[in-house]
Amino acid sequence: MKKGRFGDFGGQYVPELLMPPLWELERACASILPSPAFQRELADLLRNFAGRPTPLTRCDALSRELGFSLWLKREDLLHTGAHKMNNTLGQALLARHMGKKKLIAETGAGQHGVATAAAAAKLGMDCTIYMGSVDVERQAPNVARMKLLGARLVPVESGTRTLKDAINETLRAWITEQADTHYCFGTAAGPHPFPTLVRDLQAVIGKETRAQTLEQIGRLPDAVLACVGGGSNAIGIFHPFAADPDAAGVRLIGLEAGGTGEPGCYNSAPLNLGRPGVLHGQFSMLLQNADGQVEPSHSVSAGLDYPGVGPEHAWLRQSGRAEYHIVADASALAAFETLSRREGIIPALESSHALAFALDNPAAFAKDSHVVVNLSGRGDKDLGIAFQHLALFQGEAACAP
Amino acid sequence: MRPLSLQQRIEQAVHEGRTALIPFITAGFPEPERFAGIMRELDASGADIIEIGVPFSDPVADGPVVEEASRTALAAGVSLDWTLEQLAGLRSELAAGLVLMGYYNPFLQYGLERLAQDAARAGVQGFIVPDLPLDEDGPLRAALAPHKLDLIALVGPNTGDERMRAYAAAASGYVYVVSVMGTTGVRRDLPMDAAQTVRRAQAIFHIPVALGFGIHSPEQIRDMPSPPQAVVFGSALLRHLAAGNTAKEFMAPWTSEQNL
Asked: pTM score, two decimals?
C-alpha cells in the first residue's frame, strides 16, 4: 500500500508549509517511537500515571437477559475518564523526545483537550487548546479542568464554531509555530502520519482486550463493538483483531451517531451517509453537499459530532473487514440509562452508541456468544445533557395512551 | 490570436519595467451581483492576472479576511458552477489572465476532467490549490495537462531547495511564494526572510516568481534586492471592497507607483 494510504483513503492534503513538520513527525515515528527506551517510558506512564491495564468487565445482569455474554473494555477507568489519554501521553512523550516544548491541540467535547493538558502538565510542556466557542459554552466542566491543568484555552469563532473549526484553527497555528510546537492531533484521522500514529498508540486497547478475552473467556470474542466519531477508540480496539489472521472470525462493528435520526436532519455518520472527499488533510468519507462544501454534523454526544472519519475506517468498511451501523440519539440515551441502573456503570454518551447496538439487536449475536463493547469513556461529563433528554422522554412516555 | 500564457503575461510586465499585478478576489464577494463589475474594474485598472477564489467551508490556509469572504459568498449561494458560468460570460471582455484558486474538495467533487474542460472553456489558464502539495497533485495535474492549464506551485520560507527543485521540475505558469509562516492576511511588514525566499525561488525555478500573503502596499517590495516579478494581494483588497470602496481605488497606488 502507498505510504500513508489505507486503500485509496488517507494521504496528506495540507498546505506545503505543513509538509516539513509532517515529515519531521514521520521520521520520529520511525526512529523514536519503536525504540525500547521510548516504549519503556511510555509503558511506565500508561501503567503508573494513567492506570493501565484497564479491566474487562462482564455485565452479568444484562448478559442473562440478552442471551449472550456482554463484556465491557473499561477505558472509562483510565485517567481523565476516557481512552484519549493513551494517545496524548504517547504524542506528548514523542514530542518531548523530538525537542518540542509546546503542545497545541483541538478539542470538541473537551476530553482530548483535558487529556492533552494533563499529559503536558505531567511532562512539563506548554499547552494551548483550540475549542469552538459553541463547545466552550456547552462543555463548561471540561473547560475548567483544562484551565486547572494549566492549559491556555483559545475559543474559535470561525465557521460552525465547533470541532471542525477548532481543527482548522489548530492547523493554522501549527503553520506558524511548527519550530518548537507539536500538534497533538486527537483522533486517528488528519494527514499522514496521524492516522497511523494515533492508531498505534490506541492499539493498546485491542491488545489488552485480546489477551484478556483469552484469559477470562478462554478464546477470542465473537464480536467487538465501538463507537466511531473520528474513530480513535474504535481503531484502537479493532486493529489488533483486524491485523491478525487468527482473528478473522471476530466481527468488528463500528457505530456512528445518527443524531435525531429524522430524515434530512444533521447526523455524524459519514461512513454510512457521506461520500468520499478531502477535509483536514485526508481523503476519507465525508458529510458534504453536492458542491463539496462540508456539512455541519450533529449528535447528542459532542465527542462524535464530526463530519469526517479516519481513513482506516473508510478502508475497513470498503474491504468488508468491519461493518458500520448508525445509532440514533434516543437509543444511545436509553443505553446510557440502562447500563447505569443495571450494571452500576455510567458510560459516556459516545460509548453508549456502541452499547445501544448490542442492547437493541440481541438477535445479531448468537446465543452464548461473547461480545465486547469498548466503553471508551465515562459519563460524568454528560449528566447535564442526559438528564435534560431523559426527563423529556419520561414526559413523552407519560403522555402516551 | 492565442491569448498570452500566464508566464508570458508576467514576462511582458517585467519587459515593460514593472511588477506584474495579481489581485485576488473571492468569487461573489461582497455580493454576487458585483462580481462582473469588480472583475471588469480590476481588469481595467492594470491587473495582469486575476486570481478568483472559489469559496470553501474550511479554508485552512486562509486568515480571517478570506475565510469571512468565503463564508459570505457561500451564504449568498456562490458555487464553483456559478463561478465558471460567470467567467465564461466575461471572458471576451477581459484582458487579464484568469486563475482559479480553491481548496481541493470542491474541485474533486466537480470531477477533475470536467473541471479542466469547463475551466478552459471559461478562459481560465491556471489553478492554485493550497491544500494539494506535490505528493498529492498527480490526478489534478493529469486532468489539467491536455487543456494546457497551469498548476501553480506554492512554496514558502520552510520549503528547502531540494523540495523547490522537485516542484520546479513540473512547474509552469508562475511560482507563488508565500511570504510568511502563516495564513493569508494583511501584515504591516513582511518578515526578513521573505526576500531570501524570493531569491531562492528565482534561482531554482525557470518561471516568474509571484509573492503573496500579507501584501498591501508597493513599499513592501520596493527595497528588496531581488524583487519578485509579480505580487498577489487578496485580504487587503477584500477589506477595501467590504468597506464599500472600489477596486479601481485599490489598484491606483500600485499602478501610479510603477509610472514614477
From this structure: 0.96
